[in-house]
Amino acid sequence: MAKLWQKDYTLDSLMQDFTVRNDYILDLRLVNADVLGSLAHAMGLEKAGILTHEEVSRLKEALLEILSLNEKGGFEIRAEDEDCHTAIEGYLCRRIGDAGKKIHTGRSRNDQVQTALRLYMKDAVMVLASEALSFARELTEQAVKGEKIPMPGRTHTQLAMPSSLGLWFSSYSSELADEVELLLDFYSLIDQCPLGSAASYGVPLPLDRKYTAGLLGFSRVQKNVLYANNSRGKFEAVLLDICSYMSATACKLAQDLILFTLPELGYFSLPAELTTGSSIMPQKKNPDGLELVRSRSALVQAQSTLVKDITRSLVSGYNRDFQDTKEPLMTGVDTTHQILAIMSRMTGRLVIHEDRLRQGMRSEIYATDKVFEKVREGGTFRDSYKDVGLNLDKVDAEDADEAIAKRTSYGTSGCLCLDEDFARISAMEADVRAKREKTDSAVRALTGQSVNLCGLS
């Protein structure tokens, strides 16, 4: 099919390559979402009296064929199509004739891609939230197993105070849970439908935007049609920022594990199947996965920065620059999903060496406890601090289990209240299921089937 904007000239071949680049390949990830948007738009056109019921029935049949083809990898988008929107409209025109030529009435590629991307992001948020919660649950389960196991606490990487393996694991679980809350808040932000905003200024047709938003499972319409287009890139950047926070959490955990699996410490070891080897040193079992988590967390951060740099100085309304926000969005989401999955697997299979953890509880780690012992005996904190600091050679190793048990303040190693962590994770898992079911119900009502909208599972 000719380009949607085709007129009386042929685009220069270099211009064609420059403006399309690999966008048509990326758009294979948006075909399912675009089909849903097209189906809802067709039903909206029928409600407005622009399409007949018979035309909508034929469009629906052809659109469902595209869904089926795409699920089997059989739907093709060619470079000359530019994007999935042209490929889909071309298929409709070949399959059902004039009804296919009417499908674009009342919309622009601008609100068309915005709607597809919004559906993609909503689904991606749910997938990421599910993966992060699974990871958080894995960490909390490990925290239960290690709740009473001593672990040296560190500041500045040096020995600091008595801690526990449970406190260490649950710190990461709590951090991930907070980041899932950010994802769920972001879901509420993007749960607004841009369909019907056209090229930033709407159209002189009686389109019922609330009706089509409801068909697609959105909770509301993105009311201002200019803002609907201006928000492109901004919403993607917010999602990528949250991805970068989760990736940074995984990165810190990866760095801890790289340190704590060193033979000199030996608190943990990774199973062989989660390490790689050396081409020259036969004894090596390298933590390459952990090292790549470090580097790829930086890659995710870079995608967020890239999107903001692309969009920060644009004038209002649509600008072609927006096209270049699609690849960093998908790269950032995919990479974050991989990071969460591999770190969850590593955490679940981590081999814990309790004897080495206990050996790490050297005498100096109890210095601060000795200060508070003197305080309980009536001394001032500052005098006690000075006395212990000047006589560190007199600080003896204490009972590590007793040191943990003495920490009874809420959230410390002797009072982790991990049941509350499980309850919080379960509540958010229920929230994710409810949100996914709402969208899935709308999709099933439109198509008669469940549809993967972001390409992740």
Could you walk me through the main structural features you see in this protein, from its secondary elements to its overall organization?
- This protein has helices spanning 13-20, 23-26, 31-47, 53-71, 84-96, 98-102, 109-145, 165-190, 209-215, 225-230, 234-260, 288-311, 326-348, 354-359, 367-376, 381-390, 400-405, 418-447; strands at 150-155, 158-164, 192-193, 220-221, 268-269, 351-352.
- With 457 residues, it is mainly alpha-helical.
- The strands form three sheets. It has a two-stranded antiparallel sheet. It has a two-stranded parallel ribbon with strand order 3-4. Strands 5-6 form a two-stranded antiparallel sheet.
- The radius of gyration is 28 Å and the shape is elongated.
- The model has no long low-confidence stretch (mean pLDDT 95).
